[in-house]
Batch of 4 targets.
Target 1
Amino acid sequence: MSDAAVTVRPLHEEPFLLEIEAREPGLALPGWVAGRREELRTALDRCGAVLLRGFDVADPQEFGRAARAFSPELLGYLERAATRTEVADKVFTSTELGEDQWIPFHHEMSYSHNWPSLLYFYGDLPAPVGGATPVASERRVFPLIPAEVRERFTRHGVRYVRNYGPDVNESWQEAFQTTDRAEVEAYCRQSGTDFEWTGGDGLRTTSVRQAVARHPRTAETVWFNHAHLFHLSNVEPEVAEILVEEYGEEGLPRNAYYGDGAPIEDEVAELIRSLYREAAVSFTWRRGDVLVVDNFLATHAREPFRGDRRILVAMSDLYTESPAGR
């Protein structure tokens, strides 16, 4: 990318994670992005993630305008897997999980039948200690997954079982952003999700989704699922034991199986998690940073942190998987 207003350098040798830094303070990001949208899309195709640094991004609203300069229609957040707060129009807090916990690498909403193609993260308030958002390249990870594991998942897909309610996980009202059961049922039918109302105000959903996906621009096949993250082995053993004892396996907040219903081996789930950890590329957040991630080509995670931290997220370019895609 040739532009006298910025400095461009790769942060990894693959190339993966490109840094574009403004040379002078005060350069407005929305206008700069709007004039280079196709160049930036090409850079994302090549590098998977782009860090935009040193631009004038004063607040969540300006961040939203910058994201819309990439893609005018930002997305809402249905079928949620974590609690988030909307702080500006289609701009959300990132996952509100305890500061002492890792959030493992994942593709956003890869447990669903549709998902955002592009993610935008904003360093509104970087933590004083820790709190990085590492990314990992599927081009590095996917070839390292053993052929027999890829083949089994590709053939059967992934079965996700989730329970919503006042005593487990989040409520279905929060996850589906409605208090109307009929709306939830319509969404489940439209998305090919089996559902069952349980207890006083509980909901259990079961869906079989893709294990791999095909990039809509580059035509690459990538590993694309939440199996390793939703799998019970992702929980500390003593916590997993308590959950199973209290709720039973079918009542767990979430779990993942092979698409034919067979259990996924603990060592397979851990293999995927370890491959992502080994491929991790990280940077230290600065106030005003914007990280743009191709949700097909890169996974993202969150490190533990200390102190106040607020990283915001926006999403765009909805992709819907056809049943034949699995």
Note: The chain has a mean pLDDT of 93.
Target 2
Amino acid sequence: MTSAPPPRTGLHHLELWTADLAVAAPAWDWLMTSLGWAPERVEGWELGRIWRHRDDSYLVLEQSDDVQGASSERRRPGMNHLALRVADRGALDAIRAEAARHGWHELFADRYPHAGGEDHVAWYAEDPHGIEVELVAVG
């Protein structure tokens, strides 16, 4: 059986800059691997991390000398947040239960799991530098 060719549209990759990789990387590694993304190491690149999805898209977390400031501000022009899918409400609840121990700060906890509306099941959090993630239960 041959596999389907890779998609020609959709997300190729997303690169997030962080002020301190040593602080942010453990939180992102826990989250991305919990969602089934595989970590990749690039030999000789100590200031970045990569996680790859099975659809071949990938997320990069990088510390750069060009970063300005110590934290992200989602209310300024630019990216507001990153939304990722999770399998179902059970997976969402499990991630929520462990997230604070891995450096994530929950947003809108008083409205969980419907902060995005009554027909939308999701969890919102910020990494140690204020980058917001929304996890959406699709099943």
Note: The domain at 13-137 is CATH 3.10.180.10 (2,3-Dihydroxybiphenyl 1,2-Dioxygenase; domain 1).
Target 3
Amino acid sequence: MIEAFVLVVVKPGTEEKVYEALKNNERIKEIYRVYGEYDLILRVEVGSIEELDKFHDEVLRRIKNIEMTETLIASSYRG
């Protein structure tokens, strides 16, 4: 299982529209509206890198109000 955090910038005033477009996606476990450089943070769980690629291509890139994303793949500490 791969966990990733996707930082999202949307067109001003479209946060609710983007939230509505994403809220029922089974790969998205949490959505946060945040202040600062980014507008939303998504916590995503997928089975593989290929599935993460598919999520970006088939979900995020098809939402016209999303201007930019940055994806952080989570890792764990060993120790």
Note: The mean pLDDT is 96.
Target 4
Amino acid sequence: MISPLDLTHSNYIQQKMDMKTKPKGSLGKLEALAKQLVLIYAQGIGERSLSSMQFAIKEPSISVFAGDHGIAKEGVSIAPSEVTGQMVANFASGGAAICVLARQLGWHLNVVDCGILTPVPMSNVVDSRLGTITAPFHQRCAMSLAQVEAGFVSAKRLVESDIQRGSNLFAFGEMGIGNTTSAAAIFSAMSGLPPSQTVGQGTGVCQEVVDKKQRLVEQALAKHKLDSTKPEEVLLSVGGFEIVHIVGAILAAAEAKKPVVIDGYIATAAAILAIAMEPHCKQYMIFAHCSNEQGHRKMLDYLEVEPLLHLDMRLGEGSGAALALPIIQSSLAIYNEMASFSDAQVTQVVK
């Protein structure tokens, strides 16, 4: 069970932000972000202690979960499923975009094999395999309930390990050929939107392949008759092994009262499922960016959230979430270090 945020300090935090040497609200989303973060980190702290405390991001952790999808055999991507394993090796070797960003920005990076066709025999790849590949979900359920439950347990174990290492901020990325089709099926099942509004180009496929993806999602929705009030059934019917892990990791981080940075299209599909399972976990989420994938803007609108960035990205891997870290750190620095009108002896102008 995930507890709702205790909002006892909400007015105090807002007043402290309003009294900084700036016009009220002039730092826009940075102010709302700082308030959200301080509320999360101040859980259980008395106001007298809060007034003298400073808050910082410590050992931020980003995990890239990889899984292969049976639906990829239908030709929904420009790449074959074997590329998932090749990219996992690239992550482990430090050559992918997320590796570059993690090094540049200071993220601790976990690479997790959730179930890919060919395991990567590298010591820095975490083995959390739920299978080799999911079933083609337009024909039968992608996985079993037992696999979903095992993925949740493993994801929670990974989050708890990073918390013991000192992490107080989490982000989750993914790799899996075919997973934009899975995410579109999840979003259609949960929102009721037709596949024509949720299916996009993914890796950059042509319109003919987009049409095929839409037909496959339509077939899956008709076959499974999914109910948005039963998110676990949606997940096992049309999800992916890596998406299972992201959902489980989001829930585990929120249960531990740690903020979670949500990446792009696939990660937001996982967030939709997590919120349906545990509504209070949404209070711990920071939405990093609006992807260029068709449907992501609709996902964000569905959740009634605004992302921090608009960079026309559609890579995945957690790349958008990684880029949000300096903004998150800056919001806390403003809260901690910016002088108040009285501290700076600046006349406060009230309109």
Note: The domain at 61-331 is CATH 3.40.50.10210 (Rossmann fold).
